[in-house]
Amino acid sequence: MKREDLVRVLKAMKVPEIPPRGKNLLIRCPLAPWFHNNKVDHNPSLSILVDPDGPSLFQCFACHRKGPLSYLVALYDRKSGGVLGAIVDEVQKMEDGDAAAKCDRIIESAYGVTTYGSLFDQKDEESDPTVVWSEKELARFSKELPDWIYNRGVSQAVCEKFGVLWDPKDKRILFPVRRRPDSALVGLSKRTIVPGVEPRYKDGWGFHKGKFLFGENFVDPKGAPLIVAEGFIDVLHLYTLGFTNAIACMGTQVTTDQIERIRSWSMPVIIAMDGDPAGRQATRLLMKELAGRQPVFVATLPDGRDPGDLSFDEMRTIVDNAVFVVETVVE
């Protein structure tokens, strides 16, 4: 974001004494009334690294919040009762590289614009650390999906069930993540379909990925054993094949929060992580943490394969031959 636009945004948040120059800005934290112990930032404690070609990053050394400027803006907007209005969306567009986005056209009337709908439309952060996204955030993306996802063995009906979307500008498939039991939108992850583009996945800012499981909103604790997989496509493909009690840890870095969610359902579990070293390491962790608390089985996938590229017959055979895990063996 250009410096002049950044200054306009900071002024809209009533930040005093903005330094006139410098790539790094040190300012008083606009979040102080809600997150600082004394409710005031007497000494400037928030640093902003200005990047005219991409997201400007901030970090407050008093309240310890940090991230892209869009996160700061959205959090301030929510805490202040929505006073920034459309600025929230404009800042996000600017960080996404939208050349048509301009802060100057809306900031002059910042306190009278129509609120677009903040990404941080949630309960009080002190009592609920998870982020609930506004459903309006999905409206900017397309429901017309490229053939890429269908060629991966995912049906249109399953895509519609999970609300899979398409970002034509970024050329990425979008996977909304919803929590159980209220199906609230808690995050969004985007996967590129362009070979060689890194990072392959982008997580929406404010998304506490380690606190949730993809597909958990559809879990039936009284249904078939729960298949625990690694990725988004794995779950969508499993549903397409007819294995409709499946969730993904959204990677191999399985967290304590995710394990607790699986435990809470007290149902049989079939671990079906990818057939590679990272997947096997995640399998061992899940075995250790779940065995003895609920029935746990391990489905052994062929080397280099994952549930997302197996046929029905292959997956059925692997599930039927899953090995029961004895707690004492794991320990």
What's a concise summary of this model?
The chain is α+β, with helices and mostly antiparallel strands and 331 residues long. The protein has helices at residues 3-12, 32-35, 69-79, 87-95, 104-107, 147-151, 156-162, 232-241, 256-264, 277-290, 312-320, 327-330; strands spanning 24-27, 46-49, 57-60, 66-68, 165-167, 172-178, 185-192, 201-203, 226-229, 246-248, 269-271, 296-298, 323-324.
Provide a descriptive summary of the structure in words.
With 331 residues, this protein is of the alpha+beta class. It has three domains: 3-120, no CATH class; 136-211, Alpha-Beta Complex (DNA primase DNAg catalytic core, N-terminal domain); 219-330, Dna Topoisomerase Vi A Subunit, Chain: A, domain 2 (3-Layer(aba) Sandwich). It contains twelve helices and 13 strands. It has a five-stranded mixed sheet, with helices on both faces. Strand 7 and strand 8 (201-203) form a beta hairpin. Helix 3 (69-79) packs antiparallel against helix 4 (87-95) and helix 7 (156-162) crosses helix 8 (232-241). The radius of gyration is 22 Å and the shape is elongated.
